[in-house]
Design brief:
With 398 residues, the chain is α+β, with helices and mostly antiparallel strands. It is 36% helix and 27% strand. Flavin-adenine dinucleotide binds next to α1, β2, β9 and α8.
Length: 398
Amino acid sequence: HLQMDESTSEPVLIAGAGPVGLALAVGLGHHGIRSIVFEAKQVPSEHSKALLITTRTLEVFRAWGVLDRFLEAADLTSELSVHLAGRAAPEVTFDFESLARLATIRGVMVLPQNRTEALLLDAAREVGAVVNFGQELIGFSQDSSGVTVTVESHGQRKEVRGAYLIGCDGAHSTVRARLGWPLAGKTYPSRIMLADVRLPDERGDASWPLLAPQRRGVLAAIRFAPRTWRIISTVQPGETEPTVLNHKSIEEKVHRLFGHGPYEDIWSSVFRIHCRNSPHFRLGRVVLAGDAAHLNSPAGGQGMNAGIHDAHNLAWKLARALRGGDEDALLTSYEVERREVVVSTVERFTDVLTRLAFLPWPQVRFFLLQVVKRALGRPEIRARILPRFSMLNASYHH
Ligand SMILES: Cc1cc2nc3c(=O)[nH]c(=O)nc-3n(C[C@H](O)[C@H](O)[C@H](O)COP(=O)(O)OP(=O)(O)OC[C@H]3O[C@@H](n4cnc5c(N)ncnc54)[C@H](O)[C@@H]3O)c2cc1C
């Protein structure tokens, strides 16, 4: 990466040390730009949340020189075989070698989000970013030469001046709220249950992703650490949160997926899922990225990755603007390019997957799944879907 640029005396200010804020700090550092990150939480998060790191994100990490630490932390999965519970043979196999023309890295990675964040935090600090925990951004004002933010910590307020403010402060973004923009779109009627469980015996070594038939919606599982799995299940109409989350209910799902035997609850919760975006990603020197700008269903595992791609698109443009480039053209292109990718690829892909999984009529769903399965049996169809899943299909025209 470049030497830290002392000529740009004012740093880029980042609200939020989630994966997107930290990725942006790494990207800026890679381009020699100082940043200060303000994170409201006192300590880094310990939740597993987003598990999938797509091929395009790994390419971004490679470009920033941080890929090796991810390859040391988790295996690269170069062949993904979808299994149905109780059947030894996979239903369909995706071979990432078919991405040879599109990427140097041929695979995806499964890593709990807290570990992704820990690796990005180390990388950000190594390239000179200052990451402050326990400091909440509560307001800002901007003028033609910079942004002044007000930050609160332990009841004390301070003002910090920077060249730009990037709101990477998640779905309930203070930055977006202050700009007066809603997250417009839809919330799906179905809720999903996520549960992380540990299986102490060889059932925990099963291949993933693993699916089990369910009357309505999905029941699926992904292994994200040795013998440690994320279970994803649609909440059935009329089911209440306490019934879905009690031990017996989760045990019944574990048995349907893995067969009978013991298991250990790690964590579980019920969520509503959304397909929403902000009408704008930028006003002057204030920019939004990640969940602060767009939210999509976790089907397909694209959300966190899309935010990191925002950071990748934005980092070099901020660096160029700070070195005298055409700020307006650069930041306008960020908004145009990323909104287009989010709306026309990420939202569309995750929406189709979500609607297919949530179809309320079992016969129609069964019929459609047979059609999908037959289509996926054809290598040319798999070769078209894999770049989309890997997020390699987006290109920028501006
Ligand atoms: C349980 C769960 C499971 C998920 N599973 C998946 C999945 O399987 N696949 C997937 O793609 N996505 C998943 N997601 C979504 C994924 O976690 C998000 O897309 C991702 O975290 C977005 O990153 P971000 O950095 O934009 O926002 P966040 O991770 O929300 O980070 C925002 C940060 O900003 C901080 N902050 C907020 N306001 C302020 C403020 N005013 N000042 C300073 N700091 C502030 C917050 O404390 C937070 O640390 C899941 C989410 C949850 C909750």
